[in-house]
Specification:
The complex is a heterodimer of chains A (about 110) and B (about 110). Chain A is mainly β and about 110 residues long. In chain A, about 0% of the residues lie in helices and about 55% in strands. In chain B, a hairpin with a 2-residue loop joins strand 6 and strand 7. Chain B starts with a strand and ends with a strand. Classes of the chains: A mainly beta (about 110), B mainly beta (about 110).
Chain lengths: ~110, ~110
């Protein structure tokens, strides 16, 4: 079974803090994705990566950056957290363009 | 205008009913199509892929209509356990394949 893990289930940070969300997958997948999910807005793609050290912007990259130094790990960084970044963050990985496997999510609250 | 549109519902149906959801997409460069299921407070999981010829998996049938740019999901003989949010996903080919999620359709199956 594919396993995608995220570093925290719940996180509370203060405005202006730098926040790191980590995602690790154990199936040697090339593709990894970061989404945020908000009520009424659904899942929105922040960044994705199709290879190590490669990244592409999704629909809402503003205020975020990513890092993919190793194939199994894809990190989402909030350089200076703001209250409008309070959300559920979901990481996913896939072997090809088909099925994505999601992690359990990190619920981030910025106060 | 969002590229992938779904009726948010909720669709409230009795056990045993047949229910159908549609999902429309606006980008004709869309290449592949999927239905995911998301239970409350859980991550999305692939329900089924949608092929041009249509496909069926037990009580679930998915169809693609390229001419009218929509996909559909039909659930027959609804079970209480089918209660969930159903997410439509379209992979749009740009330089790489970019997954775009609909906002989801909520299904509630009641006794």
């Amino acid at each position: 079974d594919v396993k995608v893990t995220q570093s925290s289930r719940y996180l509370v940070k203060r405005t202006g803090e730098k926040v790191f969300l980590e995602c690790v997958q154990d199936m040697d997948h090339e593709n990894m994705f970061w989404y945020r999910q908000d009520p009424g807005l659904g899942l929105r793609l922040i960044y994705f990566s199709y290879d190590v050290k490669m990244k592409e912007k999704g629909d809402i990259p503003e205020g975020y950056s990513v890092s993919r130094e190793k194939k199994e790990r894809f990190s989402l960084i909030l350089e200076s957290a703001s209250t409008n970044q309070t959300s559920m963050y979901l990481c996913a990985s896939s072997l090809n363009i088909y099925e994505q496997y999601f992690g359990p999510g990190t619920r981030l609250t910025v106060t | 205008r969002k590229e992938v549109e779904q009726d948010p519902g909720p669709f409230n149906v009795p056990e045993g009913a047949t229910v159908a959801f549609n999902c429309t997409y606006s980008n004709s460069a869309s290449q592949s199509f999927f239905w995911y299921r998301q239970d409350c407070r859980k991550e999305p999981k692939l329900l089924m892929s949608v092929y041009s010829s249509g496909n069926e998996d037990g009580r679930f049938t998915a169809q693609l209509n390229r001419a009218s740019q929509y996909i559909s999901l039909l659930i027959r003989d609804s079970k209480l356990s089918d209660s969930a949010t159903y997410l439509c996903v379209v992979n749009i080919q740009g330089g790489s394949y970019i997954p775009t999620f609909g906002r989801g359709t909520s299904l509630i199956v009641h006794p």
